[in-house]
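Hi C.,

You asked whether I'd gotten around to modeling the 532-residue construct. I have! Everything is below, sequence then structure, no commentary in between.
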Amino acid sequence: MRSPSGARPSSGGGAAAEDDFAFYYSFLQDAAAASPLALDETVAAAAMPNNRRRKRGGDDSIKDGPPAGNNGRKRSIATIITSLAALEAEGHADSAGAADASRRELALLESNADNKSQAMMDYFAKMEGSFDADAESEAAARSRRSQLSASAAAAAVVAAEEAATNTAASASPPRAGHHQRRLWVKDRSQAWWDQCNSPDFPEAEFRRAFRMGRETFDMICDALGSAVAKEDTMLRAAIPVRQRVAVCIWRLATGEPLRLVSKRFGLGISTCHKLVLEVCGAIKSVLMPRFLQWPDEAAAGRFKEGFERSFGVPGVIGAMYTTHIPIIAPKISVAAYFNRRHTERNQKTSYSITLQGVVGPDRAFTDVCIGWPGSMPDDQVLEKSMLHQRAAAGMMHDACLVGGASYPLMDWVLVPYTHQNLTWTQHAFNEKVGDIRNVAVEAFARLKTRWACLQKRTEVKLQDLPVVLGACCVLHNICEMRREELEPEVQFALFDDDTMPETPVRSETAKQERDSIAHNLLHRGFAGTTFF
């Protein structure tokens, strides 16, 4: 029977045919009861597919009118149901056949893909084995060649030593500790350095090349001997201490590129670069504690007396200044090292780091702060320096430092008046403070004159620059203490842009003290007359 909704009931297993028969039989009975003519047309349409009429004999034939009786109608319904069931079975068979064909095709494709993958793996395995065999044979050949080369070099060395021994009587004796140069070392000329190292070399020429006399150079070599000396090896003789120090000092003094340093001293470029850094590090670790240090109580007293005797300003132990050292554009934090003021003045993109220094009356440095980016103003560099921490810890010996207008007025920093419409007293004070500041300016000018590497962009990496600049400051102090003079024609014109601090006055007590000093200068006759 039909379901209440008129849909065909679904079933599974062996009951499918019986359900189909019941469904179709019930449907056709209803149709026959409703219209015998419609039933005959339905029977004809189901019994004659593709518009072909099949003739049947006896009671099974289809006539134009309704069937003669109920038996004929039932036989027609059974025939139709059987045909429909056969058609449905044929459709199921076709679907099953298509599914089997798809499965067979998929299995064939998978089998072909597996075969191709296996073939590729076998090919790669064979190629890898071939490469391994070639590498092993090449390594073996290289090992044999190296053994033959070592044997030949050893034989040549033995022959050279025997020849040198046979001719030792006629040849000049070699230097102490000097071994025969091996064949694999590139032969470079050291004629220029041998000439400079000779006792007959003129003192003026030596001073022009190294910015110091021979006695000062010998003192530095003796002080650094234990720190930079190397021992000879079986392969080559070590570079002497004097030559190591000379490479560094000549590079700092001239600022020439490493390829010219290499030609001058007969050494490799990388060797010269390594020597410069090693000697600069030794100068910072060995000589800086001796020649660049903050003054103690006794030295601070001498500095106060010297500045007051020369300029009339009491309680000053040093003059402060900040200069910029040009560098190549760094790979990181480029904006921090960009120097806008130098770029605008020179019309060329400039990058720099700062060098802040405090100078005593003898134009020698007593404190340096190196390496802050060039975009920082002078007052911020001062706040980040060890000098600021030293002052906060009370190590200024009840004294002050004199700086320019780029520094703020504080209890331990004395700066000139910067407002408009100055009085005569303030003009006189600014003149004296400017004279003291010029001591630091002159010291920095002599520093850059003596060590030309500070005048232009250097090849030294940014992380190594503080060591190199510190070594330049130490060597400057040594030369100033030993009265090493500079040639007038090589004087460097120092020029740095002053920046105004955000807060020019940071202490009311310091402001009153400055007014008192300015008043005493004018009434004690220490003020000049250039402001009139």
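If it helps when you're writing up: The CA atoms of residues 164 and 170 lie 10 Å apart.

Thanks,
B.
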